[in-house]
Specification:
- The protein starts with 7 loop residues before the first helix and ends with a helix.
- The chain has 120 residues and is an all-alpha fold.
- The protein has four helices and no strands.
- The protein is 80% helix and 0% strand.
- The longest helix has 29 residues.
- It has a single domain, classed as Up-down Bundle (de novo design (two linked rop proteins)), CATH 1.20.1440.60.
């Protein structure tokens, strides 16, 4: 594939991971350490799996890691939705992150589709 730094989807996912990390720093720690750790790991998983997929030797392997990144994006969205519903983060913050995650999920789905077309 290519250097993952050149992928706009990786750059956007990297920004999301940083934003989610900063947001999670503002969450109350009391009784929420599991959620904080999980949302951080899931957010970091998105750009990490894009990077790993981009450096794999085959398109089939690349798609596998991009699918993991896609699933992690959905996981982060739900965790932030839960945090907003539980009043752990402002609803406006959730809306912003949700929009970013939707964009990354669409980009990942498009990239997966494009790579799959070259495999067949």
């Amino acid at each position: 594939m290519q250097n993952y730094h050149q992928l706009s989807v990786w750059r956007k996912a990297h920004a999301i991971a940083l934003n989610v990390h900063r947001l999670s720093e503002r969450m109350p720690r009391e009784g929420n350490s599991g959620l904080v750790g999980q949302v951080r790991r899931a957010a970091l998983s998105i750009p990490s799996n894009i990077a790993e997929g981009a450096t794999r030797g085959s398109d089939k392997d690349c798609v596998k890691f991009l699918q993991i990144a896609l699933a992690s994006a959905a996981e982060v969205e739900y965790q932030l939705e839960f945090a907003a519903a539980a009043s752990l983060i402002p609803a406006a913050e959730f809306t912003i992150r949700q929009q970013e995650l939707t964009e990354v999920r669409k980009m990942l789905a498009g990239l997966i589709k494009r790579i799959r077309q070259t495999i067949r």
